[in-house]
Amino acid sequence: MTPKSADVVVVGAGPVGLAVAAGLRLHGQSVVVVDKQAEGSNTSRASVIHARTLEMLERIGVTKRLVELGLELQDFAIRDGDRRLVPVSFRDLPTDYPFTLMIPQWQTEQVLLERLEELGGTVLRPYAAVGLTQTADGAEVTLDNGDVIQAQYVVAADGMNSTIRELAGLRMPGNTLQLNFSLVDVRVDGLPVEEVSLSFATAGLLVIAPLPDGSFRLVASVDQAPEHPDLAYAQQLLTARGPRKSAPKVTEVVWGSRFRIHERVAENYRAGRVLLAGDAAHTHSPAGGQGMNLGLRDAITLAEALSTALAKGDESELDTYAATSRTEALRVVGLAHRLTRLANVPRPIRPLRNAVLGLVGRLNKAQTGLAKQLAGIPDR
Q1: 169: left (phi > 0), else alpha (psi -120 to 50), else beta?
Q2: CB count in 10 Å sphere of residue 379
Q3: CB–CB of 116/19 below 8 Å?
Q4: Residue 205 bridge partners (DSSP)
Q5: How far does CA 166 lie from the centroid of its chain?
Q6: Using an 8 Å Cβ cutoff, are 284 and 262 in contact?
Q7: At a CB cut-off of 8 Å and minimum separation 6, what does 236 contact?
Q8: What is the DSSP string of 23-47?
Q9: From CA 105, how far away is CA 103, in angstroms rounded?
Q10: The pTM is what?
Q11: Residue 109 phi/psi, 5° resolution?
């Protein structure tokens, strides 16, 4: 049965929506989470959690469990085949989490859902939000079954094509890069399991990332991305763009997909009683694994700001959230854009690019700076 009212309605039960809801429940607020999917996704999609995000997730009590389930990697490298152009280490970063945590998104969602349920929250499925009205005192969300939920605030965590954002009249301008990407999770013999690598091969970009179950994620920029990549296709990517000495051999394709990159940031994160978070507020290249991290940091900050507004009637933290989170999104989008453009320079220029990177990559300042940017702590 659909509740008639709540302090906050969260639309979208991905990692961001679940984290917002858990944060609200932790502060004693009533929350309704609705999602149009019949069940959570079991594909991996986002697979990295960085140091700053782990720090912030401590506030809702899930970091320890995520670290237990994930794979801690202390090294990242930009490579050309077997040559390390820019080695990056997280080992000496000023954080309690001097590593990048590899964990598939479905597991992150499961941990967040379990935490929400521990705190007395639930997710209503499958219900799509199709209507939104606002007054000075609150908002109403209409579901596709005709039910209406009254709330003080509404959080749009329903992705890049957010219905709530559109209903609230918030714009998210930007562009779509003319680049095709292929994502393949595979099992491979002959790949190192202690490093995430970004291969700047002459043939094109290839990300190689180990996952906790022993499989690897491959992400490549390609002219034509197959809808269902097979073993031969994955092997060709590794042979042309990956390490050569170890002669890695693909033994199984676990899952695959294709996508294009959208670079967009909402003009405003707030319209009255509606707040944006996650992909509903920003979307960008997966370079550096920043997308879900930025969204989860949105979620924790927003949950605390909403709790203050509900408890004290002071909305100033909501405005601060809207401004500072958008500024952070612009920084992250810029970083991901630069990495993507650098990885996809015209083919004749790639050897020169790699030669320059090889020189720059010897500088400790450059290595540490990139490590801090990726970890989400550029100012420490």
Answers
A1: left
A2: 4
A3: no
A4: 200
A5: 21
A6: yes
A7: none
A8: HHHHTT--EEEE-SSSS---S----
A9: 6
A10: 0.94
A11: -60, -40
Q: What is the DSSP letter of 48?
A: E
Read off the DSSP letter of residue 345.
Answer: S
Residue 195: strand pairing partners: 75
Query: pLDDT tens digit string along 42-89?
Result: 555 789 999 999 999 999 999 999 999 999 999 999 999 899 999 999
Token readout for 252 is 């199984």
Give me 64's structure tokens.
Answer: 């320890």
CB-neighbour burial class of residue 239 (10 A; exposed 0-12, middle 13-18, buried 19+)? middle
51 Cβ contact partners less than 8 Å away, ≥ 6 residues apart: 90, 93, 95, 97, 98, 99, 100, 375, 376, 377
Find out whether 144 and 127 touch, Cβ atoms under 8 Å: yes
> Phi then psi for 175, rounded to 5 degrees?
-145, 165
Measured between alpha carbons, how far is 231 from 83 in angstroms, rounded to an integer?
Answer: 25
The DSSP secondary-structure symbol of 267 reads S
| Strand 174-189 to 216-222 pairing | antiparallel
Tell me phi and psi for residue 125, to 5 degrees: -135, 155
Spatial CB neighbours of 312, under 8 Å, sequence gap ≥ 6: none
Sole residue written with tokens 């170890």: 246
- The answer to whether 281 and 161 have CB atoms below 8 angstroms apart is no
Q: Look up residue 279 and give its two tokens.
A: 């992909």
Quick: pLDDT tens for 128-178.
999 999 988 899 999 999 999 999 999 999 999 999 999 999 999 988 877
What's the token pair of residue 220? Answer: 């490549």
Output the six-digit token pair for 379: 């100012």
Phi/psi region, residue 369 (left: phi>0; alpha: psi -120 to 50; beta: rest), is: alpha
Whether 303 and 155 have beta carbons less than 8 Å apart is answered as: no
